[in-house]
Amino acid sequence: MSLFSGWRAALRIARRDAVRAKGRSALVVAMIALPVLGVTAADLTYRSALPTLAEELTADLGAADALFTDQGMGPVRLEQMPDGIMWQTPEDAPETLPDDERKPVDVPATFPKGSRHLTEQSVPASVTTRHGITDTQITELSVADPLLRGRVELTDGAYPRAEDEIAATDAFIEASGLSIGDRVTVRGPEQVYTLTGAVELPAELEARSLFAVPGAVIAPWQKTADGDKEILPPQASNLQWLVQGPPGAGVTWQDVLTANEKGVVVRARQVVLDPPPDSEVPMAAHMQGWETDNAELTAAALTVAAMAVLEIVLLAGPAFAVGARRSRRQLGLVGSCGGTRGQVRAVVLAGGAVLGGVGAVAGVGAGFGLTVLFRPMIEDFTGNRFGELTVRPWEILAIAVLGLVTGVLAALAPAIVAGRQSILESLTGHRGTRRSSRVLPIVGSVVLAGGIAVAVYGGVSGNTTLVAGGSVLAELGLLGCIPVIVGFLGRLGRRLPLTPRIALRDAARNRGRTAPAVAAVMAAVAGSVAIATYTSSSAAENDYDHQPNLTAGTAALMTFDTTKKADLPRARAAVEQNYPVSGGRTDLGRLWAGSDCSVYYEEENGCGTLAIVKPTGKAHSCPLKGKGAKELALRISADEHKRLMNSPACVDESSTMVTFGTDENKIVIGDAALLTSYVKLDDPAAAKALAEGTPVLLNSAYAKDGEVTLKAVHTYNERDKEMRALHPGKVRTTTDRLKVYVAPDRYASTPGIRMVMPQRTADRLGLHSEEDGSIYTLNREPTDAERQGADAAIEQAGNRAYVMTANPERQGDDEAVLLILALFAGVVTLGAAAITTGLSKADAEADLTTLSAVGAPPGVRRSLTGFQCLVVALTGVLLGTAAGIVPAVALRLTDLREALADMRADPMESAYTPIVLPWETIALLAVVVPVLAGLLAAALTSSRLKLARRAG
């Protein structure tokens, strides 16, 4: 018999066996097809969502041949790469002039002869919405022109064609609540436009912007601003030109070089797609060494692929082992008819090839189908439309081959065992006695310890490659120890009731079936726990370093235009009517010495200053500044470092000191209500001090003997008649010693306020003061609609105020990430537990029949199945949790190393790098998922069994 004829027979036997055992075959096919499906869908999605070079050009140029951009350097020669993105000014180029001295560039003169063009220019603007007002970007561009097809597409209505028409992206329409036909007003010039159509940018589906025809927004706005000095002119972006070259010629590299001589950068379609040789690119000589190294990314991808294959092999291997045992009589007949051990192994391997091939084909087909079915959802998630479904045949073929190879690898170990089995054992059905390997646990323990050591060393040294390699080694070492751990489970059931005792002993007796399933669960849970632990730890670090801009649960209404008397009552009513205000309002004022420094056209030396002079001496100096600060920072604990950072002496030394509407000295006019509602200082003595005219100082480091030194430099503007009347004469400096009430140290870190001064004290000192805003207590975070409504009402008040809310400590994405990881690991755990439970039932039918024959109640079969599933799930989850902590800890050690380096450079930087276990995720995996798996297995198992004669 030739090799090929032998394999034909083996494949025929394997195919018939697969058809005969439909349930087990479907299980194996599903295990192989599911990862193939996922990889196929991921490959198709990645290749389709990642735009090709031609699709990138369409997103930038539409149907035009090139985009010409004036870089604002004047007519100065530039150099650029063929991609039109990277450019520079040559070293021998003349020095550029200031903006007001540069000569304008005649960009259209650089276009190829016989070409036509469109202009494009954008401007930020504030516009009205159905809810109120919002900020957006308006682009003047003839979006109806065919040159824009592929870049801007109409989804509803009509393109704007007149100067009083405008189009909006779908995302803007959804956020603003507007509809086609509604009126949109551009605030400032108060120009009104009709919303005629909805458009989308295929490369930017989330963009919220408006489109108008050229000359419809910017020119009228500037004209209105020239006529009315109260209206600020728009700050438009650089003008760009979309150019369609001469028919059949396009825009060539020579055209690009000609434009570069005039200071214009060009992104030309045919140049990007077919770039010239480096010898013709002047800038290419300066771009050596810009290639990126993707070695780490490739290594990570290969590691993930290898672990995925290992997990499939671990899950599918027991199924082939059970199949080989159930077919042992057939395999024995092959041997009795003259078949060699190699041919017996070939039959089992052929089963892996048959089922692996079917799984690969089914997975690839399902991957294509699901990608097409969920394409709109995927496009919305990625934020861009697929130009077309990009298929790389060789990649798809490699994925299919991977599925086939995985099936063969899963059948390899059972094939070796079947080949070693004697013909007598196969025909009689006796398994014989086999001892577990004594070497494997020892090797596994050594590899486990070595992997942990390598991962920790990688974390301490900052080598993430060693961290990844050590983590994989530790996991592989733990895999080698699993058979011993599973064997130990049998000893735990001595004092347990019947069904859990049988379940534990069955798991220990059939280690070849239980250990791989436990390993597969461990692998999935380890990855999820590692990412979840790192995410939780990073979130805790961010919360630790968080510096709030306001006291939590508050909002501040502030004014920023003091050229007029602000209509604060109407602005306050706007906030109270639109925001979820739960408490009363607390007003505060600002004060300064001399002219109003917030007026934008005042020169810096024309403003007065007001400051609290910090006393000198060790008691008032921050120990994290100056001599010995580095040694102190490295010596103390993270908690002590944070205590020092929030201490009165150090809290104002940080470069990230936060204020809201006040100057850096953070002195405000307020009363006792401000102390209780915002500062959270409910102290009758402090309220009494304010009522008597004594300021309340929140930072004790600025006080000495119960007094502060207040230094004011009074300067006056000729238009400031009020201040001139109060303080006639030349510029003068006053220094006053004020008695203050010093609040406890814990209030020194109150955001935005250092000292609260009564109004009468400010008047007595001759300081200029006026209402600056109000503080509100909120019962929740306001929605976008509420913000837009409040902004519109404030705008109608005409005082140019704004509202700010407290920034949250943590972004909401962390909880979503942890939930997704838990769900992923839970699904894999349920699947692996279900697989091993199904194999246990198929492998132990004779034992279950014996239990029923000796009078076991019908519920024993159901409860036994449930406990078998629980044992696998719980063991795998606990081992996976332990394995997942290793890479997380190693990566946090890498972060600690970087944090310590930052602290050495600046002792004010925190080196707090906690390791926080995601107890919610671990509890979900360690308690909920195993119990759920056991209950489902018990519920789906029939308690009745038809008795059959037991052979042997």
TrEMBL record:
The chain crosses the membrane at residues 297-323, 344-374, 394-418, 439-460, 472-493, 514-534, 816-835, 869-891, 911-940. Keywords: Cell membrane, Membrane, Transmembrane, Transmembrane helix. Its main location: membrane. Residues 304-422 form the ABC3 transporter permease C-terminal domain. InterPro entries: ABC3_permease_C, Membrane_comp_ABC_pdt. It is a multi-pass membrane protein. It is found in: Cell membrane. Coiled coil: none annotated. PANTHER family: BLL1001 PROTEIN, MEMBRANE COMPONENT OF PREDICTED ABC SUPERFAMILY METABOLITE UPTAKE TRANSPORTER. This is FtsX-like permease family protein. The lineage of its organism: Bacteria, Bacillati, Actinomycetota, Actinomycetes, Kitasatosporales.
